[in-house]
Structures are given as structure tokens and as C-alpha cells.
Specification:
It comes from Candidatus Curtissbacteria bacterium RIFCSPLOWO2_01_FULL_42_50. The chain has 614 residues and is α+β, with helices and mostly antiparallel strands. Helix content is 29%, strand content 37%. It folds into 3 domains: 200 residues, Phosphatase 2c, domain 1 (4-Layer Sandwich), CATH 3.60.40.10; 138 residues, no CATH class; 239 residues, Methylamine Dehydrogenase, Chain H, CATH 2.130.10.10. The strands form 9 sheets. It has a 5-stranded antiparallel beta sheet. A 5-stranded antiparallel beta sheet has the order 2-3-4-5-8, with helices on one face. Strand 20 and strand 21 form a beta hairpin. Helix 8 runs parallel beside helix 10. The chain is globular and about 105 Å long. About 7% of the residues have low confidence.
């Protein structure tokens, strides 16, 4: 049986004020709990009153929202997403082209709009262009889907995907990045490469490649073990085997045949003895068969465990050597490979508590520490207000600072400040749709940036607030409350989590479709109220205490502050720890936001709004 995994590489030029290309991908959970991957390329051109990057953000949030929890026909759901995206830009002075692809099980579903984005499918040495507006088709191992703008295709040499069997997508992306950066129309340039990899399920696994062939499927059958690798296993089996095992069958045959000879002489007692001996003989045969089958199964299981252990250890060792080899040339890529090596070594140790595996884990850990990327940040004061700030948000091109009883709208360009009065006793705030949602001790207020304030929710015992797609979420020490807006302005309350958790009173949260919650030295991930398996890998230093966390559906990473160590950690949504920023300001930070391009961060410290480069 064969199934597929995807390797996705994205590239896009720097956006301008009136045009931008967004390339997105995200795992989406359908109504039946299964997962698919959405990959979209969106080109937006707009006039002065629109912000192209804001439009991109709105469109991608719409994509993930519409697909999340979809049921019934997948193609129909993808087409509905396309229709909703067209409705979003209808009547606005925008020129939008996009292609949405949804990879689910062994099928690719496609919806297309506009002429500015195209989709090509490469199957070396051929390729073809898909021109229908909506449809689907089966995927196959080795295919590469290229979803790209016309501006990208004008500078892309497709022969690198048709003339070469060993395709290095990362090398292609690295080469294109330099070329795109000097193009006049780079804001309209973007592409996603989706490489379909096959995975055999019965004992066959994909192994890491070497530099220059990475991403190409290599098969290793773990059931075939080299002779030298099995010597130790055979020696152990010899020790465990009984040293003097006597076969009881000859003795029983002697008794049976002896009974038969007595029977021939007319000995009536021999009849009864023979019956008894036959029953005993049958039981002994059955017992021997059971023991033999059991012993065979035990030995088979042991051989399979040793084979699996050796496979994980070999992969870990290979990746470790590869990571060490490129550590000086590309520290970031080396770190990703070392984290994968650490994962494989951990799997090996989980099977056998072996000294070779322990030693390799120690070596990988030491190399991970060497490749940690640590940066010191120099902050610039953007604004200084009259009150200590407890919250911060981005609204268009402006920043919104939130204090105990005021809201400050700061123009980042001219640094002008406008004050808006809000309710007192503010514990947290969140900006959504140009309105500020304020959490107090027992209420939630909605404040228009024009100054109008309205109480919308009665809620006590919560300490953080977030808003996603119009729904208001409140965090307590053990639960997340979700308030759904109803007609007439009311909100319907419900518990978001299926089961209570211990977050403590210092936990904070952020939402990008999933809900991410910090609690002491952990980050929890929840999707539709169910806790997901999420572990941070590659983090060699001890965490003090996680607090403020920021992300959105536009970002690839989580930005989490460790207040004890006065550090900002960047962690991928797949759990891979990427880098850390150090500054004394992080210990005093009440809130943080990151711009959609993940190039700039803003934070509040006391009564100041600070800006730092990422």
C-alpha cells in the first residue's frame, strides 16, 4: 500500500504598497477529523485606499476558515472557498488572481480565479499546465506541482525540473531568491513548489538524503539486515536459549510402542495404560507446539525491534554527519537536520536502551548548542504615552496601545498619538475589525476607534482575551470560554475545551485557527477544543517560564517570551525551535506583536511602545 507526503517550498518577493503576492500553506482539519493540506498562491493589485498585505491576510483567513471542518464533497468545499474569496473582493478596487489547491488523501483539488496565477505539474521529463477553473485529480509519487504568478514564470527556467532526476528544491529556491530581489516587479512574484513523495507502509521508510539530493525518495527495507549487524543479536539469542534442552518425544514413543507390544500379548491392563499414555502424549505434543510458536513469535518480534532500532540509528547517524558537514556554511539548515537526527536517535533509544544510541544523542545535543542562533536586539522607542500599557495590537498601518483606562492609536509613520477613553480596571485587550475588545474584572467591552463603547459580555474570572473571526475567546486558569455573536448583538457562551487543563493564572494565548496557550514551561495546542500533540524540539536550554505569545494565520512561527530568562523564542508551528532573541526589555514586556512579513516586532514596556528588527 502506498500513500504520500508533501514537501513544500515557498518564495515571494517583497510587497509594495499597492501590490503583493502571498504564498501560503496550512494543515486543515475536516469535519471527520482527517487532515489535508491547503496551498495557495494569491496575487493582489490595489489602488491607494487599499493595503495589499491586509487584503492577502483577509483572503487566507477566509480560506482556512471555510475549509476547517468542511464535510461532504471536498471539491465542492474548495469551490465554495473560491466563490467566497471572489465575493470578498467584489466591488472593491482590486485586481485579484489566485489558485487554491487542497491535497487530501491521494487527490489534489484545485480552484482557480483570474489570469495572473498558473499551475504546472512536472513529471520528469515532461510537464503540463492545468487550465480548468475547478477540478481534481490523483497525485503520484515524484510529481512536482508549481503554483506561480506570471512574473515568477517569466524568470523561471523550467528545465531544472525536467532535465534533472535529482531535484534540489531548496537549492532552486536559494538561487531564485537572489534573482527575484533585483526584479522591478518582485512584489508580483511568488510561487509554491509542492513535491509529492511516496511512502511504502509495510516496513519501508524514507531516509534522509545527502546535500544535493535531499527531498528525493530513497527506500530502505528495514526487514533486510546486513549480516554484520546481526552478529550481536545472534550471540544474545544463544545466551538466552536453554543450554540443555532434551526432546521428550523419543521417551513417549518408547512408552507407546511398549504399550502396543503388551496389547498384542492380551494384557488387558495395557489397554487402559495405552489410552492414558496417548492422552498424555497428545497433551505434550500440543504443549510443545504452543511453546514452539511462542518462541518463534518472540524471536521474530526481537528481530523486528533490532531491525527498527538499527534503521532509526542509521538515519540519525547519517543526518548528524550531514548536519555537521554544513554547519559552517548554513547554520540554520544544519540545525534543522540535527533536530531531525535528534528525533530519530530518540526513537532508537525508545526501542533499545543502547550505549551507541546514548552516545549519539549526547553528540547531537552538543552540536545543537553550537548551532543555536542567538541575537541581541536594539529597540527603538516608537511612542511614549501617559499610562503604563498592558496590551498591543496592529490595526492597518497603525499600532493600538491599551492601558488601564485608555486606548492609544499610534501612527507609526508620523508617530502621532490619539487617545480614546475606555472602561477602567482593564486586564487585557484585543483589536479586531478596527474595534478594541476590552476585558475587565467581570465584563467585556467593545470600543470603536471612533470612541463609542458598549458592554457586550458579562464574564468574571478570566485574565486574557482574543478574538477570531468575530468570536470572543476568554482564558482562565483551567478553561477557555468561547462567545459566539448572535443576531441582535448578544453573544452565546460555551466552553471551548473538551476537558479542563491546568494553565495557571499567568498563561496567555493566541489564535490562528488553532488555539495556542502558554503555561509555565509548556505550550499547549488545541484544535476544535481537542488538545493536540505538540512538543518543542531542538531546545537545549532550560525554559524559565513562558508568558506572552503571539501568532496569526499569516505567520509560520510562534513568538513566545520567556520572562525569567528575558528572551524571545521563535518556534515553528511544527514544534521546531529556530532562534532566540535576548534583551532586558523582554522581562518587562506586557504584550508583543509581529508584522505579517515577520521582519519587525513591536512590544510594550511600561508606558513605551518599542520596535525591534527580527
Amino acid at each position: 500500500m502506498e500513500e504520500f507526503s508533501l514537501k513544500i517550498e515557498k518564495i515571494a518577493g517583497v510587497a509594495s504598497e499597492h501590490s503583493a503576492c502571498g504564498v501560503f500553506n496550512k494543515k486543515v482539519t475536516l469535519a471527520d477529523g482527517t487532515l489535508g493540506t491547503v496551498v495557495s498562491c494569491i496575487l493582489v493589485k490595489c489602488e491607494e485606499e487599499e493595503d495589499a498585505q491586509v487584503v492577502l491576510r483577509d483572503i487566507f483567513e477566509l480560506i482556512t476558515t471555510k475549509l476547517e471542518g468542511a464535510e461532504g464533497s471536498i471539491l465542492a468545499a474548495v469551490c465554495k472557498v473560491s466563490e467566497a474569496m471572489q465575493e470578498l473582493v467584489l466591488g472593491r478596487k482590486l485586481e485579484v488572481s489566485f489558485i487554491d489547491t487542497f491535497f487530501y488523501e491521494n487527490v489534489c483539488y484545485i480552484a482557480k480565479f483570474g489570469d495572473g496565477v498558473r499551475i504546472l505539474v512536472f513529471e520528469t521529463p515532461r510537464f503540463s499546465e492545468i487550465k480548468f477553473e475547478a477540478g481534481s485529480g490523483p497525485i503520484a509519487a515524484g510529481q512536482i506541482y508549481l503554483i506561480a504568478t506570471d512574473a515568477f514564470l517569466s524568470i523561471f527556467d523550467s528545465s531544472v525540473l525536467t532535465d534533472n532526476q535529482n531535484i534540489d528544491l531548496e537549492g532552486i529556491i536559494d538561487g531564485l531568491a537572489t534573482k527575484i530581489s533585483v526584479e522591478d516587479n518582485q512584489s508580483e512574484t511568488g510561487a509554491a513548489f509542492v513535491y509529492v513523495r511516496g511512502e511504502e507502509l509495510d516496513g519501508v521508510k524514507e531516509t534522509g538524503g545527502t546535500k544535493g539530493t535531499e527531498g528525493i525518495l530513497q527506500i530502505e527495507d528495514t526487514r533486510e539486515i546486513r549480516e554484520e549487524e546481526m552478529v550481536e543479536a545472534r550471540e544474545e539469542q544463544k545466551v538466552e536459549s536453554p543450554s540443555k534442552f532434551k526432546n521428550p518425544l523419543p521417551g513417549f514413543f518408547k512408552i507407546i510402542f511398549g504399550g502396543l507390544s503388551k496389547l498384542q500379548r492380551g494384557d488387558i491392563r495395557a489397554v487402559l495404560a495405552l489410552r492414558r499414555n496417548i492422552v498424555v502424549f497428545a497433551l505434550v505434543i500440543l504443549l510443545i507446539l504452543v511453546i514452539s510458536v511462542g518462541w518463534t513469535l518472540v524471536q521474530k518480534s526481537r528481530r523486528e525491534k533490532i531491525a527498527e532500532f538499527e534503521a532509526h540509528l542509521a538515519t540519525a547517524s547519517s543526518k548528524y554527519q550531514e548536519g555537521v558537514a554544513i554547519a559552517e556554511l548554513n547554520k540554520v539548515r544544519a540545525r534543522e537536520i540535527l533536530i531531525a537526527a535528534d528525533h530519530e536517535a530518540g526513537l532508537a533509544l525508545g526501542i533499545l536502551n543502547d550505549e551507541k544510541a546514548k552516545k549519539l544523542v549526547s553528540e547531537i545535543s552538543a552540536k545543537l548548542k553550537e548551532t543555536e542562533t542567538t541575537s541581541n536586539v536594539n529597540f527603538e522607542v516608537i511612542s511614549e504615552v501617559a499610562s503604563p500599557l498592558i496590551g498591543l495590537a496592529i490595526s492597518g498601518k497603525n499600532l493600538i496601545g491599551i492601558s488601564d483606562d485608555k486606548i492609544f492609536e499610534v501612527e507609526t509613520g508620523e508617530k502621532k498619538i490619539r487617545e480614546i477613553k475606555s472602561s477602567g480596571n482593564t486586564k487585557g485587550g484585543f483589536v479586531y475589525d478596527e474595534r478594541v475588545f476590552i476585558l475587565t474584572d467581570d465584563k467585556v467591552y467593545r470600543v470603536d476607534l471612533a470612541g463609542e463603547s458598549k458592554k457586550i459580555i458579562e464574564a468574571a474570572g478570566y485574565h486574557d482575551i482574543s478574538v477570531f473571526l468575530g468570536n470572543v475567546y476568554l482564558l482562565s486558569g483551567e478553561q477557555i470560554a468561547k462567545f459566539v455573536p448572535l443576531e441582535g448583538g448578544d453573544f452565546w457562551p460555551t466552553d471551548y475545551l473538551n476537558a479542563k487543563e491546568d494553565f495557571g493564572i499567568k498563561g496567555r494565548f493566541a489564535i490562528d485557527g488553532s488555539v495556542w496557550v502558554t503555561a509555565r514551561d509548556k505550550i499547549f495546542k488545541f484544535t476544535r477544543g481537542v488538545r493536540q500533540n505538540f512538543e518543542i524540539s531542538g531546545l537545549t536550554s532550560k525554559v524559565g517560564e513562558f508568558g506572552v505569545i503571539y501568532t496569526s494565520s499569516q505567520l509560520d512561527n510562534l513568538y513566545v517570551i520567556d520572562s525569567v530568562n528575558s528572551a524571545l523564542l521563535v518556534i515553528g508551528k511544527d514544534g521546531i525551535y529556530k532562534r532566540v532573541y535576548q534583551s532586558g526589555e523582554f522581562a518587562r514586556t506586557a504584550d508583543i506583536v509581529v508584522n505579517p512579513g515577520e521582519k519587525t516586532m513591536y512590544l510594550v514596556s511600561a508606558n513605551k511602545i518599542l520596535m525591534g528588527k527580527l
